[in-house]
Amino acid sequence: MEISELAKKTGVTAKTIRYYEQINLLPPPTRKNNSYRDYVEVDISRLKLVNGLRRLGFSLDEIKEVLDLREHQIAPCEVLLTRLEQKRKEIKRRIAELKKLEADLGQLHALGLTFPTDDIEGKNCVCHLVSQVAD
């Protein structure tokens, strides 16, 4: 199948497919007589795995690790389970950080509303408060 069909079957753009080939996430396909790429069914499952891992926040290096295990006939399931749990914990940590940031922004906004909004020098207004946050 040509790249356009692979893209359609996987939801991955042709440009991304070519990039994945370039960085060796996908093996180079055979070529037809007209030099068009010729993909096979196994490319669909591999690309769907790569796409799923990307959507779950896996880095290209992490994806390469999973694919390398498969290529060496080693089931990547345990590694993948460990990585999934690590990702979940990281997301939980980031959510906590974002919630704190949201609360801080709300407090800063509420406090800023009590200051004048015409202080060009920024000494007695919300600009001063924001500057202090950097310290």
Instruction: Give the CATH class of the domain at 1-74.
Output: Mainly Alpha
Number of separate strands: 2
Spatial order of the strands forming the largest sheet: 1-2
Helix content: 55-70%
Oligomerization: single chain
Q: How does CATH name the architecture of the domain at 1-74?
A: Orthogonal Bundle
CATH fold field value of the domain at 1-74: Multidrug-efflux Transporter Regulator, Chain: A, Domain 2
Strand content: under 5%
- Shape field: elongated
What is the structural class?
A: mainly alpha
> What's the SSE pattern?
HHEEHHHH
- Low-pLDDT runs of 5+ residues are none
Number of helix segments?
Answer: 6
The biggest beta sheet, please?
2 strands, antiparallel
**Taking all residues together, what is the mean pLDDT?**
92
- The end-to-end distance, rounded to whole angstroms, is 58 Å
What is the radius of gyration computed over CA atoms, rounded to a whole number of angstroms?
24 Å
Descriptive account of the structure:
By secondary structure, the protein is mostly helical. The chain has a domain at 1-74: Multidrug-efflux Transporter Regulator, Chain: A, Domain 2, CATH 1.10.1660.10. It has helices spanning 3-10, 14-22, 41-55, 60-71, 77-112, 126-133; strands at residues 30-31, 37-38. Strands 1-2 form a two-stranded antiparallel ribbon. Helix 5 (77-112) runs antiparallel to helix 6. The termini are far apart.
Strand and helix layout:
Blueprint: H1 3-10, H2 14-22, E1 30-31, E2 37-38, H3 41-55, H4 60-71, H5 77-112, H6 126-133
Antiparallel strand pairs: 1-2
Helix pairs in contact: 5-6
